[in-house]
Amino acid sequence: MQDEPIDPFNGDPSDPAAGLEDLGDDAEDEPLTEAERQDVLEDLSDLEIYQALLSPTGIRGLVIECEDCHEPHYFDWDLLRGNLRHLLSSGRPRVHEPAYDPDPDHYVTWEYARGYADGVHDTLTEGTDDE
């Protein structure tokens, strides 16, 4: 089973992103620092928790404000997981573009997901802490 979505242009000579691979050849590929790698691993771990908690409520993934184009990008759980794994293995983020006509009601921010998970955790541990 493949963890990442299949590239619909794989092997296509007219792939619009084919030249982008060449851009990285001139620049030295710097691997992630240990701190960056740890951050990505923590994001992957958090993503599993967020998906487990939020999927049953109808949330399909996360929305991230793109630093490059300043537009929201909507990522389903599996796509975001694949992007993070790609970052771990290559040291570079994938080329991306906004999803086609997503329903914003089905996506939340990282901050919302983190707050939701913290709230669930606090509710479950309420009364078990010795004060």
List keywords for this structure.
131 residues; mainly alpha; 3-stranded mixed sheet; 4 helices; 46% helix; globular
Largest sheet: 3 strands, mixed
What percent of residues are in strands?
Answer: 5-15%
Assembly context of the chains:
single chain
Could you say which overall geometry the principal axes of the C-alpha atoms support?
Answer: globular
Order of strands side by side in the largest beta sheet? 2-1-3
Report the mean per-residue pLDDT as an integer: 84
Number of strands: 3
Structural class: mainly alpha
Put simply, the count of helices is: 4
**Radius of gyration, whole Å:** 18 Å
Give the N-terminus to C-terminus distance in angstroms. 48 Å
Please trace the helix and strand order, writing H or E for each element.
HHEEHEH
What portion of residues is helical?
40-55%
Any low-confidence stretches, pLDDT <50, length ≥5?
none
Protein name: DUF5319 domain-containing protein
Biased composition (Acidic residues): 22-33
Region (Disordered): 1-34
